[in-house]
Design a protein that fits this description.
Neuraminidase; 2% helix
């Protein structure tokens, strides 16, 4: 496995794999299969097949907790999920009055809040969703309004910069982030993708402060320097990479989810591993995932 030759490490063929996180305490990878209403997990060292658990709603994003289990962004709100028992506990509803939206992408911030944005599934897509912040008190507050499809949520290693894309805008934005309050300011364009084939999907930041982005429809992941310049590109054997995280014992493996959702029959035949987990070792390390405060 190298930076130039990503390999299939988990041939799970998810419809829409997303929101991948590495739990360094258990050495397990966790991710969502959105439209199948599943949460999957897999250990690269125990020799067992990946395991998928069905939930009652589609799962847009997941996060680790300080205590046991996961926090999950379901299509209509936030819940805790206990992988040991398979049970979920509702925390808060979101956008129940908007039947065409669902929660889509999220990550835990450096202070232990779950920051998660939604998307509108109508056509044409409308900017009627939002990005929310859920703290340990369990009441979500709105961070950014007017969202079509939230993605690319992550932070610089010091937490001072928040990265985000409203996917149809074809740009990744950067904001100043106040870790003490969970508020954003000073929006500016970090990366302009209007001349690229793909759209910015999920992102993560490595220990050097460089942002890695999976580009839906572009068949690649791109590493951007803190000034937004392209540091490197890695081509993939799938058209639709969706999200990525660093994992493994020393956080030096980059794991990438993907999807066959949106591909026609001939495209699926050309991409037999679409929907699987890919991995590469890019020569840099990540940082541990933050955990929800309770």
């Amino acid at each position: 496995m190298s930076a130039d030759s990503p390999t299939v490490v988990c041939d799970c063929r998810n419809n829409l794999g997303e929101s991948v996180v590495w739990d360094e305490k258990t050495a397990r990878l966790w991710w969502a299969n959105i439209h199948e209403r599943e949460i999957w997990s897999w250990s690269p060292t125990d020799g067992r097949a990946p395991v998928g658990t069905k939930l009652d709603e589609r799962v847009g994003a997941i996060g680790l907790r300080q205590s046991a289990g996961l926090i999950v962004a379901l299509e209509s709100g936030f819940s805790f999920h206990d992988p040991e028992t398979g049970t979920t506990q509702r925390i808060a509803d979101v956008e129940r009055e908007l039947p065409t939206t669902r929660l889509n992408d999220g990550r835990i911030d450096p202070a232990g809040r779950f920051v998660c944005g939604g998307m509108d599934e109508s056509s044409p897509q409308k900017g009627i969703s939002a990005v929310y912040v859920l703290d340990a008190g369990g009441k979500p507050k709105t961070l950014i309004n007017g969202i079509h499809c939230a993605n690319s949520i992550c932070w610089s290693p010091d937490g001072a910069v928040f990265y985000f894309t409203d996917m149809p805008s074809r740009r990744i934005d950067a904001y100043d982030y106040d870790v003490s309050t969970g508020e954003v300011s000073n929006r500016r364009t970090f990366v302009d993708l209007r001349d690229e084939v793909g759209l910015a999907d999920g992102s993560t930041v490595d220990a050097d402060g460089y942002l890695w982005n999976a580009q839906w429809g572009g068949g690649k992941v791109v590493r951007y320097a803190p000034d937004g310049s392209v540091d490197r590109e890695v081509g993939l054997p799938v058209s639709n990479p969706t999200c990525l995280c660093f994992g493994g014992e020393d956080l030096s493996t980059l794991y990438i989810t993907s999807a066959w959702f949106g591909l026609d029959v001939s495209a699926r035949a050309r991409e037999p591993h679409a929907g699987s987990i890919l991995a590469l070792r890019p020569g840099v390390r990540g940082v541990p995932e933050h955990r929800f405060a309770v």
